[in-house]
Amino acid sequence: MTKSLSRNALLDEADGFVTARLAGHWFALPISAVHEVFLLSRITTVPQSPPGIIGVLNLRGRIVTALDTRQILGFPRAEKPSTMAIGIERHGELFGLAVDEMGDVLTSVAAEREPAPMNLDRRWREIVTGVQRSDKHLVLIVAVDRLFDGVTSLVAA
To answer: Fewer Cβ neighbours under 10 Å: the N or C end of the chain?
Structure first.
């Protein structure tokens, strides 16, 4: 009985994350920060927009700013453009983070996470709060606030 209570207590402390792949790396965003996942289609480019902004699109009546997550994090351009995006709402605006592939929802207990490796690229080191092992690969846990701090500075440049 004690064992099941311990297991239930751990599940109560678990956090949910949406996982995605970008340039061969798996990362996770807190599910509480994700507005939705959607297809990137009918993107309108915006003249004179800063690097890192793909364009804008209409998602059920809302304007979404599509972000080139690869460029923001310093990865080379993909052979084919991203077709999926993770929608994040920040300060009343909806942004779509372009990703190469969507993964599963990951349930993670803080005690099972490891610190971010010191050998991560500077851009990743600034946004990653830890690493979670999954059945298939390592997943970098990303702090949405830190990611958008980088987006803000990129767009302001």
So the answer is: N
